[in-house]
Structure formats: C-alpha cells, structure tokens
Amino acid sequence: MRKVYSLIILQVLLALFTFSTAEGQLAIKRDSSIIKMINKISADSLKSYVVKLTEFKTRHSLSSRTDEKEGIGAAARWVKSKFEQFSIKSDGRMTTEIDYFEVKPDGRRINRKINLMNVVATLKGIDDNDKRLIIVGAHLDSRVADIMDSTSYAPGANDDLSGVAAVLELARVMSSSKFPATVMFVAFTGEEQGLYGSNHLAGKIKLLESEGKYRLIAMLNNDMIGNTVSSQTNLKDNINVRVFSESIPPEGTEEERRTRILSGSDYDGISRQLARYIKEVGERYVDQINIKLIFRRDRFLRGGDQTPFNRMGFPAVRFCEMNENYFHQHEYVREENGIQYGDLPEFIDFEYARKITSVNCAVIANLALAPSQPENVRIDVKKLSSTTKLTWDEPSGKKPLGYYILMRETYMPFWEKKIYVDSNSIELPYSKDNYLFAVQSVDEEGHESLPVFPVPDF
Q1: Which among 57, 81, 385, 407 could disulfide-bond with 70, CB atoms 3.0 to 4.6 Å apart, if both were Cys?
Q2: Peptide bond connecting 287 to the previous residue in cis, omega within 30 degrees of 0
Q3: Does any domain span residue 63?
C-alpha cells in the first residue's frame, strides 16, 4: 500500500511540474519550409563561387571594366550571370541588373572619374500592397596593401568573396520562394575605396521610400564570414559570429532625442532591435552557431557597407567572423618568414560560412513571411502606476494571429520574457521604471516581425 501511495504522489508531482513548465515556457515554432531552404545551402556551392571569382585576378574598384577575363567588370558580369541563372526558378519574380553610377575623384582613393556598379537581383514580393524590403549584401571589390594598386593579384577570397558567395547562395536557394515582402540581393563595389556602392544604393532606397515604393525593414551586410583562425593570437573559432549594430540612428528630431532620454531607450534603436532578432531567430534555426551581439556600428574605428544605411536612418547590421586574420587581409600574396600572406580560398572554412549564410536565410525568410510590425505602439504614462499598460494598432496588410510582448530588466542586453496576447493591449504587473518593453506581430506559422519599442502616451 505504501508503494501505491508513493507512486500516486510521484505522479501528482510530475503532473504539477509538467503544468508549471508548460505555463512558464513559451514554445516557439520553426517553419518546416524555412528549414528546407536552410538545408539546401551548401558549403561546396559557397566554395565554387569563391574559387571562380578569385580567377579574375583582381576586383579592385579601379581595375578594368572591359576585359573579359580580369578586373571588376568581368567579375560583376559573372555575378549577374549567376543571378540570371537562379532567376529562372522564380517565374519572372526575380529581376537582375548591373546598376552603374559615376564617381568623381575624391583626392583620396578615387584618382579619376569612373563608373562603379552594384550587381542587384530583386525578388519581388507577391503582395503588391506590401512595401517592405529586405536587403542582403556583400562587397565584390578586393585590394592589396597599396589601396591604389589596381593591377596586382588581389584574390580577396574572404574579404569579401565569403560574403558575396553567401549572397549568391541565398539568391539560389530563395529564388523559388514566394514572400509577401521583397528581398534584394546585392554585390557592392567601391567598398574598399570608401563605401561608394552601398552609399549609392542607400540613397536610391531613401528616395524610393519617400515616393512610397519601398519601406526598408532590414539591411544585412556580410563582410568576412569565412575565417576561423586569428593572426597573432592563433585563436580558433567556428562556432561564434559577430553581429555589429548601432544603438540609435544618427538622424532624428529634437523631440525624438528628448523622448529617448526620458524613456531610457538608448539601446533600443531599430538596428539594435534587428540584431536581437537575428540572435533569437538565427540560433533557433541553425545548429552549432552562437551569435555574439557587438554593440557597435562596426569594428573599432572602422565601417562597412551597412554604415551608409545607418547614416540614413535605416536598420542595418554587419555579420563578421569572430576572429580576423591580418596575414590574409589586404596583403600581397607571398610567403615570408615561413608565413603565407594573401587572402586565398585555402584559408576559408566553408562549413563555418555555410552556418552564417544559413542564419541570414532564417532571418530573411522569417521577416519576409511575417506580418508587418504593430503600429502606434504606446506605453501609458497618464498617471503614476506600479503596473505598465501597453497599447498598439494592428498593422496594415497581413493580419497577425497575435502579438508577443517582450520584456527585460533595464540592465539586461537581451529580452528575458516573451508573453503572447491576441488583443491590442495589455496591463502588466511590472514597473516601467525597472523594465523595458517592446511588441512584435506573429502569424499562425510563428513568423515574427521586428519588435517595436513603445513611445510614451501622455
């Protein structure tokens, strides 16, 4: 009898534990169609793109535009041909172009008037009323130690063919998918000479936004995502990847600045929200990867192709390997004192690059399939209260199934709680003095929008 009672008590305790666990944890869905996309991403494909593009000898921004075998022009035309090949699966929804633009001498790294170019493939969204745009890019140009040397062998395998290969592979894998939002795949040039290609595209998108044609919700820059061994320190890391994000956009009104100071939202700008989203979604879908959020716009005193987008107020981040190797970055190819210098394909870990490419895929697909962000998200400050009331409006377009309320203590870098609601308001027993909040839309399949930080509702 004693054994029977003991068994009954154990069963009750297990039932209670199961109930509390189910109540305390929120199961997040993984979309099987996105998993299938990720499973198509191939390290061998990435390697084939990199090896082929190193055969153009140099892709310096001042190199030949007309030579069929060498220079930036030949490399750009080859990238476009791959985009065109992949577009066949899109039923006409993916279009490709080489977008040429003129750059005048700048007294620094451009010594004559030239035409630069961005190679662009645009996968149009299937919802004509959905103006959301997601850009994934990398820079095609390469260099050696002398920034003005446009003829020497400059393979640029990791910097940044690893990123270009990711963009190509994403275009290949995603071209047959149907998203409500539009996805743009870009190979920039002029990065090493001064971010000219990305500055040109950011300006175009700014103009198109003002005309109501697009609304850029995320720009993902992949710049050096294949190296796993650092120079000098010889650290080895094929698990971690850095994602750089700025805290707040440089643009903004005085009223926005004042609100930010009063609400304590200095670490909740749109690019920082994008970075947190990347960490959550990327680690949910991709195994053996840890996303390290670096709370800087880029590496110390440096910049990348996300920088012009940041300057114009867009959400933009940079993916970059955890450890850089300066023996293989901006160097002439040579062997010296037993060390092989030069940015050669043999130093890329293509399995590591595959995982980072897969993170990009998971983030792009989830954003492109998700409902738009909730609109007019507000936090009630009409009277002093120990509780927090949030309200918001349903987004235009696809109707969400519901919303997630995100919470974290003020000193924490990441969201700690995620509460699902199917209404447009909630009152929480947590003080706005001690917690930060955001709201995101979610659909039936678990696709989530970017979070929106609330503004005070006086």
Answers
A1: 57
A2: no
A3: yes
